[in-house]
Specification:
The structure is a single chain. Helices cover 34% and strands 25% of the residues. The chain has 11 helices and 17 strands. Helix 1 packs antiparallel against helix 2.
Length: 373
Amino acid sequence: TKTFCRRGMRGCGSHVRLLRFLSKSNYFMKEIYYDPNFYEFRALAEIAKMFKTPIQANVNLKDSSSKEQIEIDGLINLKEKEWPIEIKSYPLTERQIGLITDKYKHFGFKRLKIVAPNFINKIKNEIDIDYIEFHPDFSLIRKFYKNWKIKLPPKIKKELNTGKHHFRYKLVKRSKNSITRFINQTDKCIKIEEDIIKEINQRIPLNNPPVRIYWSTGKWLSPKDLYFKNLRQYCLGQLLVFDIDGSLIHRALFPCIISPKTGLCNYCIEFALLHTKRLVKFLKNLGFREIEIVFSGRQGFHVYVFDKPVGIEQRVKIIKELRKKKIKVDELVTLDKKSIITFPSSLHGYSMYRNKTIKRVDVFSLKDLEKIC
């Protein structure tokens, strides 16, 4: 680069302009801000794969002397030494690194792995710091959506054909001062599979593909109006959907363990599977028969019920019964008409597994799933 700089300054104006462009490109590469949840999960999965060792995720520790608590993004055991892992989805300055290491030093840690897209300055500290610069490869996400073949069960396909569901797309990168970046469906109704494929490949930037695609559980007279505030929005009914999240079930007992083989937490899957089986049995006892089960793509399942429209009063009764039976579901997804859920057959960019319809939940296996890698 230095050699090119000298030649550029002596050469023609085009060289100087190219040099300025490259300088700006390098600057913006340092300034990349990823979606935090996407970046953290991808980083943990890649580190587990790199060291061929499971990683505990989102570990809560308490200092016995001060009773202070700290949440660690990850904890890995290497050669009988525990390494806490701190993950940041944006470039780190010397000052930010100092604040991070002071926190871990306060809790008595002697070593630390820090993961970030870029380190503007690295520092030496009393703590042994292992700097890991990580840029997730999301070219596979873009490739998936270029060749996307949507596979929907007839009942879900019929819902899509109404054109009354709102869509939302969560992107890999975000703006500097925002937590997440969404692109919302604001221009037209999506009625067929080709519409959503076209939307993804034409409207969303190549260098910032979607890590999540959501659709609304409610049907709306004008789905695009959900994006705008202070507009009167007319709901035409709501799908009866249950969201079972394995991590919310078992995290009260112990943290997630990211497997180096699957990149998923097997506890999440097992706990979610158990509660999904119990939920399906409960629904069948209520007389429901038209049930579709979809693997969420990461740590749980979505259960769709199509027998008949179910009003809010009956939904509340169902949720109360589920509480009594200690069947854990995300209650807002079932009760709130403005809730959104991952679109079936899309790619879960955190795990790189595809949302997939499960024909028989009693014989479910991770081997049956589609991982894009």
